[in-house]
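Deviation from plan, reported transparently: 2-acetamido-2-deoxy-beta-D-glucopyranose complex.
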Amino acid sequence: MRVQSMSSTIVLLISSTLPLCSGALVANESDTYFTLGNDRFVTHVNKGLGYIDYMTLDGQDLLGPRAGSTGIGPYLDCYCIPSGSYTPGSANTVFKLFQGVDSSNVAYGGVVMTNVYVPTGQLFEQYWFLRDGETGLHTFSRLAYHNSTTPFLRNLQEFRTLFRPSTSLWTHLITDESFYAPLPNPNPATGNSANSTTVQDATWYLGNRTNDAYVEQMADYFTNPRLVRRRIA
Ligand SMILES: *[C@@H]1O[C@H](CO)[C@@H](O)[C@H](O)[C@H]1NC(C)=O
Ligand SMILES: *[C@@H]1O[C@H](CO)[C@@H](O)[C@H](O)[C@H]1NC(C)=O
Ligand SMILES: *[C@@H]1O[C@H](CO)[C@@H](O)[C@H](O)[C@H]1NC(C)=O
Ligand SMILES: *[C@@H]1O[C@H](CO)[C@@H](O)[C@H](O)[C@H]1NC(C)=O
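Because the crystal trials were delayed, the predicted structure below was used instead.
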């Protein structure tokens, strides 16, 4: 008797939680973009370009002005086609919108972008998922390539997901609680190269700076994380 009444209480708890979760989570689309949102976090995936171009937390714009290629991400990018760099998402792209409740009984929404680079047949996928009650996205990137007739296998140099805000809201680089630093000031990556010299494509020597918190706290060298080429092959 006791066991039976306990289990019916559990069933009641689960079913009363469901409407709350699905009420706060938004996963819908207009002609030009998808929206993923919950009570605090809202983001748009641009259907024409295949990347995120809008993101707010508690109403605060996290990406900044959207002019040209600034203020975007996370988005997929690679150095992997025969000619080099490629940003999947404009031509030959299909999107799929997801909405559901996961095994922890939390509502989620997601967008999956699938892009084919037609000249080689390389397939790219980017996943963006948001759970109710969370203030960040879950992302996953996938690359597939099958071409037995004319294989192209020489050029998978990098495969990366980039977050490129154009706002001065972001002030620090953080790996974890014990490894972080303020951005250099002035930041040579944004064109102000005072007392700096380029030593590699996205790395500067800043050791002569006398009053730069990045140099004092972290290092004489700075690599722009937004431009760094992560070698994977
Ligand atoms: C998506 O849902 C939100 C919240 O219900 C609503 O404000 C918005 O108009 C919807 N967008 C579309 C394109 O249906
Ligand atoms: C394989 O690669 C060749 C040359 O890049 C291309 O012409 C062909 O369409 C590709 N095959 C597939 C199935 O994508
Ligand atoms: C750093 O200072 C040294 C010694 O004054 C000088 O030779 C060098 O050119 C300076 N480099 C930069 C990047 O300012
Ligand atoms: C630039 O470097 C020179 C020495 O090369 C130093 O005297 C000066 O204070 C530096 N300025 C800044 C802003 O770091």
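Residues 37 and 160 are 24 Å apart (CA to CA). We consider this an acceptable substitute for the interim report.
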